[in-house]
Amino acid sequence: MLDGIDSRSLSGEIVALVGPSGAGKSTMLHVAGLLERPDGGAVLIEGRDCSSLSEEHRTLLRRRALGFVYQFHHLLPEFSALENVMLPQMIAGVARRAARDKAAALLERVGLAERLEHRPARLSGGEQQRVALVRALANDPKILLADEPTGNLDHTTATSVMAILIEIVRASGLAALIATHNFEQAHRLDRIVALEDGKLRPG
Description:
Layout: E1 14-18, H1 25-32, E2 44-45, E3 48-49, H2 55-65, E4 66-69, H3 81-91, H4 96-109, H5 125-137, E5 143-147, H6 155-172, E6 175-179, H7 183-186, E7 191-196, E8 199-202
Helix pairs in contact: 3-4, 3-5, 5-6
């Protein structure tokens, strides 16, 4: 349960959200990502109060403005890396050829040019998470929300994936909120906030 949370993320800023298990980090990300409605207060995206939007409009706003990365990649196993990054674009109405070109460019940017046609089962954990990252960025969101994005990776791979995430966020001018248990990774980001017993404080 969250208690009086008041937080802001700015374009180009990467904020680490830390706290013990059960503190409410995932809940905070779900509220920020319009997946759950808060009991009170407001969620503002681009200055707009999204609290009273219908489910249809919340879905449309998530599709346009928000990107999500989770601890487990959640790639569709029957589709290739390329197709996994194409799909959210096509759902948003992008033509297949344009979606393919952009997906290929994004995957090449994170070092997966030789793995475009590989299905998730043929990719390493780090490669799968890189696909999940660029899938979240495929529709040019304004905000990236990541829940333990390197939590299932070994130290070396986690460091590499986080470096890629930081580089892309910096270049894209996104606002990013990243929940993590890893304080080494958290200290690489712009700012740390800590969630404990539902309350937020500077890290």
